[in-house]
Amino acid sequence: MDPVTAGILVAIGLIVLMAIGTPIAFALGAVSLIALVADRGLPELTYFGETFFSSIASFGFVAIPMFILMGAAVASSPTGRDLYRSLDLWLGRLPGGLAISNIGACSIFAALSGSSPATCAAIGKMGIPEMRSRGYPDGVAAGCIAAGGTLGILIPPSVTMIIYGIATETSIGRLFIAGIVPGFMLAGLFMVWTLIACKLAGGYGTPMVTATESIKRSVRENVDANLKALIRVLPFLAVVLGILFALYGGVATPSEAAGVGAFFCIALAVIIYRMWQVKPLALIMRDALRESVMIMLIIAAAEVFAYALSSLFITQTVAGAIADLEVNRWVLMGVINVFLLVAGFFLPPVAVIVMTAPILLPIILSANFDPYWFAVILTINLEIGLITPPVGLNLFIINSIAPDISLRDVLMGSLPYALCMVLGILLLCFFPGLVTWLPDLLMG
């Protein structure tokens, strides 16, 4: 069978399995196994098992569950609530200030948790009911949280950046730093659109204190409460800054920094929020274990899938077709962006990175693009996939938090933010220094 026909059959099989609800790791594994056995016979079962287990038998992957554990400790504590209330103290007076506060909280919480779903869920549980009670349109309330949650895979520490670094053998510390400026640039674009949307809708700017609370508290007491909440968040931010310093300063490897960060975040949650009981700690471990196993399974299955594609010469055929395009390098980048965008519509970020980054990196380098700049471009494309159908993980998280908001309203509220991300990609193409300047300054 020629590679093109084999590729079409593999793609159809994967789409069918995903369409009937098969988890992505099992879908990738099943299609790979069938393709390998059909092409080379039963002896391929041995290579299937070896590839599956060897793909994750690397010390570098220890950083993934450790960062996830760190994020679970933050997400399971009242850190998001304190961060949310503190930001509203400073931003709540602006038109649409509460929605802008939500995006700011998502930006900072993303740095604490490193996970888009965790960011979306933690801030959304508090932010959406509060915004709706103030009269914000459902689309604005849902859209700003769904979009703000995507920042979790860009602003460091980011699990997806770790996976990209391992898959492409690039510096994880440099990748983390490369995501800082673009991450906060996107947050700024989100805030500008939120301000415009709220202005068009009439503007909303009441402080985050209900009528009952305003009777019981003086303004001074409310300010003090919010400042105390901010003080409780600062140690967690210090942990993130310490991790970045350890990485780009050469003090520790990503796995070591992640382990220390996880320990300190759990310790801070216990000390600051008095989470002494066994049950909340067990929930942190359970959530971290569940997400870690899911990601590791996807990585292992995606590696097997990549092995199957390579064995059938599908990978080489696709890469050769892209490389043979005699076009301007920016046209080539446009084609790659469209490919990543479509892939992000159907697959989770982890699967897309593991399957495509090793294939695309040689093409990117041959076209004289910076691999760290490309990592940010790739990540923003995958962020768009988190708030667009048919998968749109963040859309479904928002819908589960506020089931009375229709999925259509959530989607329509999120689409303008997807356009903000497209604008962000264009800005990074015109000004690549927004990505490369800070890593070059700090790491040379």
Comma- or semicolon-separated keywords:
single chain; 444 residues; mainly alpha; 22 helices; 80% helix; 0% strand; globular; TRAP transporter large permease protein; transmembrane; DctM; cell inner membrane; TRAP_DctM
Overall description:
Belongs to the TRAP transporter large permease family. The complex comprises the extracytoplasmic solute receptor protein and the two transmembrane proteins. With 444 residues, the chain is an all-alpha fold. The protein contains 22 helices and no strands. Helix 2 packs parallel to helix 15, helix 13 runs antiparallel to helix 14 and helix 18 packs antiparallel against helix 19. The longest helix is centred in the middle third of the chain and has 34 residues. It is globular and about 70 Å long. About 3% of the residues have low confidence.
